[in-house]
Design goal:
The chain is α/β, with parallel strands linked by helices. It is 41% helix and 15% strand. The strands form two sheets. Strands 1, 8, 9, 10, 11, 12, 13 and 14 form an eight-stranded antiparallel beta sheet that branches. It is globular and about 60 Å long. 50% of the residues are buried. The mean pLDDT is 91.
Length: 484
Amino acid sequence: MAPDATHAEQPIDSDDLEIAYIGGGSRQWAPNLIQDLALSEFDGHVRLYDTNQEAAETNAEFGNWVQDDPAATAEWSYEAVADLDDALDGADAVILSTQYDPRDTFVHDLRIPKEYGIYGAVAATIGPGGIFRAMRTIPVFRRFAAAIRENCPDAWVFNYTNPVHFVTRALYDEYPDINALGLCHEVLGTRWHLAMLAEEELGMDAERADVEVNVKGINHFTWVDEARCKGVDLWPLLHELKDGERGSKRFTYDDLKDDSVFTDNWQVTWELFRRFGVLPAAGDRHLIEYATSFIADGQDSLNHWGVRRTDADYRAKHWTPAESKQTTNVEGWMEGEREFELESSGEEFLDILEGLTGDGPYVTNVNLPNSGQVSDIEQGPVVETNAVVRDNQVKPVNAGGFPRPVRSMVQGHVDTIETIVEAARTGDVDLAFQGFSIDDQVQTLTPDESRELFGELFAAEAEFLDDWNVDESEVLATADTFDA
């Protein structure tokens, strides 16, 4: 069966775009978007909405400040809007990029599972931490979807919020006719890495845009079974490299201690390729949270495969621009404390927007409900494949299926995601615990341990979980770590 296309009834007016940015106080995505828009061929207006109004106002000030840069090629204006409905009213495009303060949430997702012997490297999209991030985010995104249905039903919605597969699925669960795309740059990183291999090993002059892959899976657990660079089949090269020195490196803590947590040594990627014959297309730090044998021995196992753990202290400091290399300090730019150079982020939002407004077709990886693009996963769950973007339409590409062992791994995580999404419809805590219990990382624990871990995480983050029916939960009533 051919997959269905996502399409809006009303075309986008490329001359006067209205963009609603939900999470407009973002400290990284919003500054990147503002620079991309300034360098674009579009003009328009951006309404920034955030529960942190002050942060949204700062980004609005920054956006208008950037417009004075001599390198700016487009005309955009920005305003911070205090009301969600006002921000969405009549929008052509909606960007979703939100998270709670990690000092109140993310640090627990990392610290508490570690006490039970679970050393997730990121804890953002799967595993105990990823599931609780989904549980506190899904209800909010259901409200966003309902508000989009009321205020801008034909808008194109670009979701960058993790966990992408959980929350994009929740958008469609609330509003089935929404035109939402889940976006992530992990596959883009794989294409960049393959271009680098083509340069180094084949002597080609290559960049990311020259690499074409057939991608399929779920976000952060995507797989490639075809790869070409400028028409040259890269598969023989990959098979050669997987068994050579490049594919067989091992590390210790001391080897990695000065590296960024984002450094990707590709050793998990090579090992999974050797084992299953298809190439993973996400960073190793994400892959190990789905293929959990790589973290079976905790910190030593992570380091052995070349992965540094993102710990709670890093996440807390990441939230503060003065202490983080990842969070953008726009005030420093505007006040002249830091040199500013207007430059593109390398993200694909504008490429997709250009395709939607008629400058296409454009092909890239997107997360959409499965309507046949992945042949051996049930229809409905959000999957990640390539899609063709053209005038007011996004059509996923038939990507085929998986080798049976890979399908088994992917399907298990799909079952977790679908169970949590179903539980969120009514706030059913015990059903959410069922989804939590079948997660691969949680299954390393005894039944009592998994219940206590669930209770402790719920207690630590209870103020962000008030959409869940705590009083009706048997599992929380029997967890010693949860005190109502």
